[in-house]
Each structure stands twice: as C-alpha cells, then as structure tokens.
Design brief:
The complex is a heterodimer of chains A (361) and B (141). Chain A has 361 residues and is an alpha+beta fold. Helix content of chain A is 48%, strand content 12%. In chain A, the strands form 3 sheets. Chain A has a 3-stranded antiparallel β-sheet. Chain A has a 3-stranded antiparallel β-sheet with strand order 6-7-8. Chain A is globular, with a radius of gyration of 20 Å. By secondary structure, chain B is of the alpha+beta class. The chains are: A alpha+beta (361), B alpha+beta (141).
C-alpha cells in the first residue's frame, strides 16, 4: 500500500521553499509531486515597469548566488537589439566574473552535498573556501553578493590589477586540486553514498531537456560556453567534463572537475587581458521593435533571456523573459527519485543543485 | 570522459528540416514565423533531430492573441519558431517533449492561454485564490 509524505514548503529537511509530496511504498519512493511558486516575485512583470538600465538591478535579484550571470545574460539580450560592440576588455572581465561565480556556486553546492552526505568536515572546508572566493569577488567589485558589474555595452568596473587576482586564483586552485577534487572524486564514503543513487538516464535527460552539470552527468555534452560562445570564452582552451552514469556520484564528479576548468579559464583570462576601454554607453539607446536572445552557461546550466524592445520606442521594454536552469532541471528530480530509498531523497534533490529564488522569480 | 564539439553547416540543416522557407537571423537566434496555430508538427521535427526545447516565450498581440516563441537548441544553436495562438488556444507539446510541461503551465498562469489537450492543468507559479493572467492587457482576472 502506498502512502504520501508531504515535505515543505518550509521544512528543516529542505534548503529551499518548495513543496514535495513523496509517494512511497515501504521505504521506496515510487513517485513525487512538486509545488513551486513560494518565492514568486513577479520579476518579469516588474520588468515591464522599469527602464533598460533599472532592469539590470532588478534581474540581479533573481538569484542570490548567480546574480552576475543574470545581469550578463540580460545585457547580452539587450545588446542583441542594438549595434553596440562590447569592448574586448569588458568581455574578459565578464568571463572572469562568470567563472568566479561558478567557482563560488559549485563550492557552495559541494559544501551542501557534503553536509547531506554526513561529511561535516568537508562541509566546513568548502564553506571556508567559498569565503575566499567571495573575498576575491569583493576585491574586484566591492560586493560579495550582487556585484553590479555588467552594463549594457560593457562593464561598470575594471580589473585594474589582474595579477593580484591571479595570485588569489592560484591559491584557490591549489585548494581545489589538493582537497576538493580528490575528496569528491576518490573518497570511498562519498562514492558509496552517491554511486548508483538517483539515476537519470540519457534518454530521460533528453526528454526533460535537462541542462548544465545535471545533464552532463547523464551523458549530454551541451555547454553554452562551447556551443554558442559568448563573452571571451572562444579565446580560451577548456574541457567540458561529461559522464555517462547519470547518478548522484556523476553529478558530484562533474562539478568537481568543472572547478578545475574554471580555474584554468581564470588563469588564461587574467594573464591575457587586453588593455583598452571597458565601459558601455552612459545612456544606451535601444531601437524600437527589436528582439534579442541570450543564453549563458550559469553554474546550474543554461540561463535564457529574451528581450522585446518597446514597439513605440519607449525606454521600457515590452517584454523580458527569463528561463533559469532549475526551472527545467527540477522536473527531472521526479525521475531521479523514483525507485530510490526515502532516506536518499534529500541528497537526490540536492544533486540537482536547485535554486527556487531563480525558479520562481 | 568526453568533450563537447559542435560544428555544423546550420543553414543547410534548417532547409532540411522542412519547417518552411523564410528563416532569418534575428537577435542572436534563427527565427521563423508561422501562422499555423499548431506547434506540434515543428516539435515532432525538432525532437526527431535531437533538439532540446530551451523554453517558450510569449507576448500578447494587439488583437489579444499571444505570440508563442518556441526556442529550440538544435545542435547547440538557438532556433526560434513563432506561432500565434488562435482564440487564445494552442495545442500542447508535452506528449512530444515532456520538458514543455512547466513552461506551458506558466504561460497559462501569465497569459491565460489554453492548452486544450493538456491533462495536468494545475497552476505553476501563482497560488490558488490569486488572479491569473497578470500579463494580459486587461490585467489579472
């Protein structure tokens, strides 16, 4: 006989406000139903009442972890409506910020995963490392959360001394190489807790349309940085880690390996930054009746923005559409949970790296 | 472990799809507009070519119909098929691409677009008791 366990929307077992109804038989999860919208703020609606520059501050609040990626994606979509050419130095700065944000997000996730696995020492180690990344972001932008770096046609601040940032990145890389990656890829406790748990097959991942590390752990090699390069990604050599097993362990390993690739991109960008201007126009002029699309590879996967400029030439767009990675990844958790132990359900959910601030907008 | 490699002659691929003439590059996406009020044939072709639905964006026209922009990632490249609703209705594609489920529910929440053949018509982001259709010209209902 099956029974239903309602969890959430506010529950100590869930890091995020959403409601999950687990349909179980004994200790086995047979199915799951999700209810979202508890963080709904109507950001797309509010964007119809702000001008193009004000919207940058608005979309920066879509997510507290990957705030930079939202301003980047929005600015790129608006730039597609114009003929602005973003200065080369600004493209490098955008790339550096995006990769620091990926490091910060993946290390945060690794800490949460370590806590759920029961590896408290690693949890504390990851959060200590995350502090250093946030210090680095503060050094560049003056802020630890909402960095206010991107602007339409450029960036707001320069990285005046890239070599000082490089020193910090090299220290971070050393910790990632010697502690985080070995623990998450070779530790027996982590492997035994995660291997074979919460499997999503490649066929399921395709059908749901999964993105980011969640998809790449199920054998789907898409990464927007390679598929449709933006910012300065086409100037750098890096690999996209892809694994086929589709289980929680594969998701752990993919993210751990992505940390190394991010460090590599940062090193290349910081040592080859071209001189020159970096700012966009003070008062950007957006032509009427245009459409712009932008996709970027956020830490959790593809973020999509669509901007329709005003049909009448006003300074307020007619439509800003935001699609975040968790919005497409979270339905996949239902497939990942089916057939697994009830006790594994928190870890399986976390392996998607969900963000409900993003999802609900 | 493998690495991504995407390289295609994209215009040739679009011609082979058989979705129609008139593809243009617009705002960073390959773009085509149709007036069929039916997203299903294009969805079948896209899925057959291993495409992934990135999302559906929507926008209300002056006549009250909603323009549905189906954004597909085809071999890593963004392809947009714009289809207007008819009497604010359009067929669901969730049986062809299950990943369209949440975005269709969200579009109903925002624009009151009906998907007549959908089984699950629950709200997604707005709560029971709050008005739906906040994006419609007349406001929420």
């Amino acid at each position: 006989m099956s029974y239903r366990i309602p969890i959430g929307p506010y529950h100590p077992g869930l890091e995020e406000p959403y409601k999950l109804d687990l349909i179980c038989e004994g200790e086995t999860v047979k199915d799951a139903e999700m209810t979202i919208g508890f963080n709904f703020r109507g950001i797309e609606f509010l964007a119809r009442q702000r001008n193009y520059t004000q919207i940058i501050a608005l979309v920066e609040r879509v997510c507290g972890i990957c705030s930079n990626i939202h301003t980047l994606s929005y600015c790129q979509a608006v730039e597609q409506c114009t003929e602005y050419v973003v200065p080369e130095r600004a493209l490098y700065i955008r790339t550096i910020m995006a990769e620091l944000e990926r490091l910060h997000s993946h290390v945060l996730w690794a800490g949460v995963a370590a806590k759920l696995i029961g590896f408290k020492t690693m949890f504390m180690g990851c959060f200590a490392l995350r502090e250093k990344i946030m210090d680095c972001l503060e050094l560049i932008s003056g802020n630890r959360v909402n960095y206010s770096m991107n602007n339409i046609g450029g960036v707001n601040r320069d990285i005046a001394d890239p070599l000082s940032v490089l020193k910090i990145v090299e220290q971070l890389e050393e910790e990632v190489k010697t502690v985080v990656v070995p623990v998450f890829t070779t530790d027996k406790t982590i492997a035994s807790r995660c291997a074979g748990v919460g499997v999503i097959t490649k066929a399921q991942a395709k059908a749901i349309g999964l993105v980011g590390p969640f998809a790449r752990a199920s054998g789907i090699p898409e990464d927007i940085r390679k598929a449709q390069p933006y910012a300065a990604y086409d100037r750098f050599q890096f690999n996209v880690p892809v694994l086929e097993s589709g289980d929680t362990f594969a998701r752990v390993v993919v993210r751990a390996l992505e940390l190394l690739e991010s460090c590599s991109i940062l090193r290349q960008a910081l040592t080859t930054m071209p001189p020159g201007p970096f700012k966009g126009p003070a008062r950007p002029k957006i032509p009427a009746g245009m459409m712009g699309f932008s996709r970027v590879e956020a830490p959790r996967g593809e973020v999509f923005y669509m901007v329709r400029s005003s049909a009448t030439g006003k300074d307020i767009p007619d439509r800003v559409k935001i699609r975040t990675p968790t919005f497409v990844n979270m339905p996949g958790v239902r497939y990942a949970l089916a057939g697994n132990e009830l006790a594994d359900s928190p870890l399986i959910q976390a392996s998607c790296d969900p963000c409900y601030s993003c999802t609900d907008r | 472990m493998t690495t991504t490699s995407v390289g295609t002659n994209f215009e040739t691929i679009l011609q082979k799809l058989g979705i129609g003439e008139g593809w243009v590059k617009k705002g960073g996406s390959w773009f085509i507009t149709t007036d069929t009020a039916n997203a299903r044939p294009a969805a079948h072709i896209m899925v057959a070519h291993d495409a992934r639905l990135a999302t559906i964006s929507s926008f209300e026209r002056e006549d009250g119909e909603v323009l549905m922009d189906y954004h597909w990632s085809l071999y890593g490249t963004l392809v947009t098929i714009e289809i207007p609703t008819k009497d604010k209705q359009i067929n669901s594609i969730t049986d062809i691409f299950p990943g369209a489920d949440w975005v269709e529910r969200e579009i109903h929440d925002y624009w009151l677009v009906e998907f007549p053949d959908r089984v699950d018509t629950k709200r997604l982001v707005t709560r029971e008791g709050t008005p739906q259709g906040m994006f419609c010209k007349g406001g929420a209902q």
